[in-house]
Amino acid sequence: MELEADIIEFRVPNENNKTIFIWDIQPSFTEDYIYESLWSVYSAFGALYLLKVCPNASVAAPGFYALVKFYSAVQASKAQRATDKQCLFQDVPLKVRLSTKQNTTFRSGSQSLSHAKCQDLANHYLGYNGWSTHIITVKDISKCTDVGWSMDTGSQGELLKYGSIVELTLPQHGVSCRGVGVAEEVVDREKGLEEKLWKRGKLMRWAKDKAVISAFEKVLLIVLGNGKVAVECRIDPEEILPDENVEGVVQVNEISWSDFEAAAAEEEDLPWNFTMDLSH
């Protein structure tokens, strides 16, 4: 018998065949209760990228509908078939449909996951001890002229720019790969030393997080029908990264990163573009 397999990437799942639409949710429940109930049901089918609960439009009957986006089209399809016309957490059966319209908004290339989403996805399929990251280097490249595009600093600004290289290791699969991240920001030359030091620490952390994201993007998870996971790493043959003996290694300080995480969350709150297959 042929073994079913599904490939999962560390990218935002824009394909609409990874999205299911749920409605006929009764108005007697709170949004928080509905969210927790749906998460409990659908996370059992596979890792979820996003779950949204929304009140019905004013022209419709009172109640709620929900959108669930998986990383896997296979898991989304299984979830739809298993839960359609089931009551789940309420007395009335729910209607569950799989989105079928192809999303052309991001046809030119999908978006990167946030650092937190990469960690969640890796923990789900590889386990908390199934992967690790090692900082090869974090360097101040503010004065470099050959490190790619830079922001326009203007006459009053000073460009702060950091680059980082991180190695991602998946020991149980014998796989490792490296990622590169660059972060930059223009600061007012009149700002005090304390604020500039805070900015430098923030950019070092940001560059490191981007390098981790870059490394995860090279990883493909092959999820087999029996639940086992295989791993492949896509390596660009033209990409040349330095070895361990890199000069100018900079210590990364542990600085609060709530601002960056909030920004990442806003970037991932993508518009929904879907239709439902109502033929079932």
Q: What's the helix and strand layout?
A:
Layout: E1 5-9, E2 19-25, H1 31-42, E3 48-55, E4 64-70, H2 73-83, E5 95-98, H3 115-126, E6 132-140, E7 157-170, E8 175-188, H4 193-216, E9 219-224, E10 229-233, H5 258-267
CATH topology of the largest domain: Double Stranded RNA Binding Domain
Query: Architecture of the largest domain, CATH level 2?
Result: 2-Layer Sandwich
From the alpha-carbon coordinates, what is the Rg to the nearest angstrom? 22 Å
Report the span from N to C terminus.
28 Å
| Major sheet: arrangement of strands | 3-4-2-5
CATH class of the largest domain: Alpha Beta
Structural class computed from helices and strand pairing: alpha+beta
Helix content: 10-25%
Low-confidence stretches: 104-108, 245-276
Task: Tell me the count of domains.
Answer: 2
Helix segment tally:
5
Give the beta-strand count.
Answer: 10
Principal-axes shape call = globular
Largest beta-sheet details: 4 strands, antiparallel
- What proportion strand? 25-35%
Order of helices and strands: EEHEEHEHEEEHEEH
What does the average pLDDT come to? 82
